[in-house]
Specification:
16 helices, six-stranded mixed beta sheet, alpha/beta, Elongation Factor Tu (Ef-tu), domain 3, Rossmann fold, 27 strands
């Protein structure tokens, strides 16, 4: 295979302080013969100066003088190497909590992440923090390298304990491909060559794993997005538009539209320094020429006419604050999205995420390294896709116009939906929600607090969401039986039960599904106000609908339980034969077949029914209720 045909893998290394990230990468560079003589001489000199017996390979990555003096990584260090099979770009990110922003920067474009865990210390808080950030950034592949195995006598028990601990934590994350490898970066075990001292480990080495990851399958090759960087006019006979293909592919002759003007034309040619191309794909820097004289400027976006991005001037996003000065809700910032810059205000902090516990917290400001969900107002609309389906057009940075510093990095969830946005646009006027006429709200005869004192437990809503066949109702019924036997007042709302009565008039269109969940939420609220522990088992595939139900309840009184199960396993179970019917075309718009399921971003609980038994899932929820003070006066057996 020639060098030009090799695929490229970008990966980031991270972990807690002194877990050996730089040493591991130094070992990879050394054993793949990617170190120049002058580089080796420089780190050899530094090692002797510090009185070290061996050459410290970590210094290859610790490029700053301050890093070498302290023996830590501060900035993100990038290195390049290649093997016979693949090219690599490595980002070695810092482990200190105060440099979390640097880690986010290094991981933002990675195809894979390598988290190092010191075998002596096990899974630490910072290891979990970085795992959460990797999940948030939607990095599709995660390798957990349990390092310094030489310092624990290459113990299999130590490795397997760490693997169990991390797998248990990772159930809360949106990461589906995790591989654990025992290594010694210092000695070279399982980094490039298999370790004879860990014959009990039969998996691949780190390098073999990195070489075999399928990168193409993780990239969006469907949604063509071409943000225009520059208009090229070298002479009167040529006019082209340069930029990097953010996602998707394009070929000459295809019909395209230019946003925001909406003018349509066709791609005439795809020009590069080495000659014209018959196809351009994500990541390639090219110049497009168009068949017609269409007005195009920097910041415009060229897309297919039948595959359009969203357009909005108000966004909901996950924001990581990266500046020492806190977020100022009264200040305008510059939002840079692809090649387009617009003024932006953070109108509201919806919640902050505690990255150690993954719990949501109320917040009025963001300080350095804070992460959470925000509502952003823009001066002009941008063209985007949600980050989860297209990272290239779903991410942005915030810049302070006074200092020109990058102060935040964000991932767009969706367009923010607020009534005033519809009313301000006469083409999209939406009538306010109508309540029944001639009715007056009356406070409950006996309040919730009084009922809770009698019940000896607090009221709460447990919202079980997941694919059909994942086990939502099974877990909810088992938990209700246990709580009922303990003397709790419970109510169980199940999707099938409601559709046989209260929601029997609804079908399965998007509007009917939204109404179904609205009715379920309002019903749950009535039981909640009467002091019950309300267990709701609904597929509820859309985040917006679930978030709307959450908003009906006080903070701490609603817990989203994601019942996690692979779609193929759900099809295999198929308790009611629904997948079989949907595959045969008898149930159109069935979730998981021809209608999407949007997994929760930060659920309070995750029950993986492929990995854990029914009893284990019930016990975990019961423990959560105890720790949250819901069952404060009830002692479980």
């Amino acid at each position: 295979m020639s060098t030009s045909e090799k695929s490229l893998l970008r990966f980031v290394t991270t972990g807690s302080v002194d877990d050996g990230k730089s040493t591991l990468i130094g070992r990879l560079l050394f054993e793949t013969k990617s170190i120049y003589e002058d580089q080796y001489a420089a780190i050899e000199k530094t090692s002797k100066k510090k009185g070290l017996k061996d050459v410290e390979l970590a210094y290859l990555l610790d490029g700053l003088a301050a890093e070498r003096e302290q023996g830590i990584t501060i900035d993100v260090a990038y290195r390049y190497f290649e093997t016979a099979k693949r090219k690599f770009i490595i980002a070695d990110s810092p482990g200190h909590v105060q440099y979390t922003k640097n880690m986010v920067t290094g991981a933002s474009k990675a195809d894979c992440a390598v988290i190092l865990i010191d075998a002596r210390n096990g899974v630490l808080t910072q290891s979990k923090r970085h795992g959460f950030l990797i999940s948030l950034l939607q990095i599709p592949h995660l390798i957990v390298a349990v390092n310094k195995m030489d310092l624990v006598d290459y113990s299999r028990d130590v490795f397997e304990r760490i693997v169990r601990d991390y797998q248990e934590f990772s159930q809360k994350l949106d990461i589906h491909n995790i591989l654990c490898i025992p290594v010694s970066a210092l000695k070279g075990d399982n980094v490039v060559t298999p370790s004879k001292k860990m014959a009990w480990y039969e998996g691949p080495t780190l390098l073999t794993t990195l070489e075999s990851i399928n990168v193409t399958a993780d990239r969006n090759l469907v949604d063509f997005r071409f943000p225009v960087q520059y208009v090229m006019r070298p002479n009167s006979d040529f006019r082209g538009f340069s930029g990097t293909v953010a996602s998707g592919t394009i070929t000459p002759g295809e019909e395209v539209a230019v946003l925001p003007s909406g003018r349509t034309t066709r791609v005439k040619s795809i020009v590069t320094y080495d000659g014209d191309l018959q196809e351009a794909f994500a990541g390639q820097a090219v110049v497009l020429t168009l068949a017609d004289e269409v007005d195009v400027s920097r910041g415009d976006m060229i897309v297919r006419t039948k595959n359009l991005p969203q357009m909005a001037a108000r966004l909901e996003a996950i924001l990581c604050w990266m500046d020492d000065q806190p977020l100022n809700l009264a200040k305008s910032y510059i939002l840079k999205h692809t090649t387009r810059n617009v003024r932006a205000y953070v109108k509201k902090i919806i919640y902050r995420i505690d990255v150690d516990t993954l719990h949501r917290q109320a917040a009025e400001a963001f300080a350095l390294n804070d992460i959470g969900r925000v509502d952003i107002q823009l001066s002009l609309p941008i063209f985007f896709d949600p980050y989860k389906i297209n990272a290239g057009c779903g991410r942005f940075i915030l810049i302070d116009p006074d200092t020109n510093r990058t102060v935040g990095a964000g991932m767009i969830r969706d367009a923010a939906r607020h009534l005033e946005d519809y009313v301000s646009d006469p083409q999209h006027i939406k009538a306010p929600e109508q309540k029944s006429p001639h009715t007056v709200w009356r406070e409950l005869n006996i309040g919730r607090a009084e009922r809770e004192r009698l019940n000896a437990h607090r009221a709460v809503v447990l919202w079980f969401t997941g694919l059909s066949g994942s086990g939502k109702s099974t877990i909810a019924m088992a938990l209700e039986r246990k709580l009922f036997d303990l003397g709790c007042r419970t109510a169980l709302l199940d999707g099938d039960l409601l559709r046989h009565g209260l929601c029997s008039d609804l079908k399965f269109s998007a509007a009917d599904r939204q109404e179904n969940i609205r009715r379920a939420g309002e019903t749950a609220k009535l039981f909640f106000e009467h002091g019950h522990i309300v267990l709701c088992a609904f597929i509820s595939p859309f985040r917006e609908d679930r978030d709307r139900v959450r908003s009906l309840f006080p903070d701490g009184c609603f817990a989203e339980v994601f019942v996690k199960c692979d779609i193929e396993e759900c099809k295999r179970r198929d308790p009611n034969g629904l997948y079989r019917k949907a595959a045969g075309g008898l149930i159109p718009g069935f979730t998981g077949i021809d209608s999407p399921y949007e997994e929760p971003d930060a659920p309070e609980l995750i029950c993986d029914t492929q990995m854990f038994s029914l009893n284990r899932c019930v016990e975990e929820i019961e423990t959560h209720l105890q720790e949250a003070g819901i069952l404060r006066r009830i002692k479980t057996p």
